[in-house]
Design the sequence.
C-alpha cells in the first residue's frame, strides 16, 4: 500500500512539474509573439520618388520627412540603416521603382514591417503634386492614398505641404490591437487538462485502494 502511494505521489509530481514547464513555455511563446507583433507595428518609409527633383534634394527631403514624422510620436519608423541592410540581404535592388501596391507589400515583407509608405512627387512649373500611400504588407491593401498639391518652390513645399501631410497621417489610427482573448482560452484549456489528469490520478488511486480490500474464507 505504501509503495502504491509513493507511485501515485510520483505521478502527481511528474504531472505538476510537466504542467508548470509547459505553462511557462506557452507564456514565453505568447510573449515572443506579442513582441513580434510590436515589432511588426513599424512602418517603413521608402525613399521619396520624383523625376523632377534632384536625387540629393530627394535624399534630404526623405530624411527630413522621416525625422519629423517620427517626432510626432504616432509612428514607429524603421531606421534607414536597418532598411538598407535588410533590402541588401533580400537583394531588393530596385526600391526606387517599387511604386505598385504588390511591390510595396513585398518590400514590407523583406523589411519585416507591417506597413510601407511611399511618396511620389511630380512638379510642373511651380505646381507640386505629392501622392502619399500606405500599403499593408500582409495583403497589399492600400490603407491611405491621398494627393497633396502645392504651388511654389521646394522650400515653400517643405514649409506648407509637408505639415499638411503630417496632419492627415497623424489623424489615422494605424496601430495594431493586441488580442488577449485567444491566449487566455489556450491557457484556460491547458490548466483544465492538467486538473483533469491530476483528478483522474486521485480517482484511480482511490478505486485501486478499495478494490483489493476483500477477504477470502477457507472452504
Sequence:
Amino acid at each position: 500500500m505504501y509503495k502504491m502511494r509513493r507511485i501515485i505521489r510520483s505521478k502527481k509530481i511528474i504531472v505538476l512539474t510537466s504542467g508548470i514547464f509547459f505553462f511557462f513555455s506557452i507564456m514565453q511563446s505568447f510573449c515572443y509573439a506579442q513582441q513580434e507583433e510590436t515589432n511588426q507595428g513599424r512602418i517603413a518609409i521608402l525613399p521619396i520618388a520624383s523625376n523632377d527633383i534632384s536625387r540629393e534634394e530627394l535624399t534630404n527631403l526623405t530624411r527630413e520627412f522621416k525625422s519629423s514624422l517620427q517626432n510626432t510620436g504616432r509612428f514607429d519608423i524603421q531606421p534607414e540603416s536597418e532598411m538598407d541592410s535588410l533590402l541588401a540581404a533580400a537583394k531588393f535592388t530596385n526600391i526606387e521603382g517599387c511604386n505598385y501596391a504588390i511591390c510595396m507589400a513585398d518590400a514590407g515583407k523583406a523589411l519585416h514591417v507591417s506597413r510601407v509608405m511611399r511618396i511620389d512627387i511630380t512638379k510642373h512649373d511651380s505646381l507640386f503634386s505629392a501622392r502619399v500611400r500606405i500599403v499593408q504588407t500582409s495583403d497589399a491593401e492600400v490603407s491611405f492614398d491621398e494627393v497633396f498639391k502645392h504651388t511654389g518652390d521646394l522650400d515653400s513645399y517643405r514649409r506648407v505641404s509637408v505639415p499638411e501631410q503630417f496632419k492627415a497621417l497623424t489623424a489615422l489610427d494605424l496601430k495594431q490591437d493586441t488580442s488577449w482573448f485567444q491566449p487566455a482560452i489556450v491557457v484556460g484549456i491547458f490548466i483544465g487538462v492538467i486538473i483533469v489528469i491530476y483528478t483522474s490520478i486521485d480517482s484511480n488511486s482511490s478505486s485501486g485502494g478499495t478494490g483489493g480490500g476483500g477477504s477470502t474464507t477457507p472452504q
Summary: Confidence is low (pLDDT under 50) at residues 29-40, 175-181, 212-219.
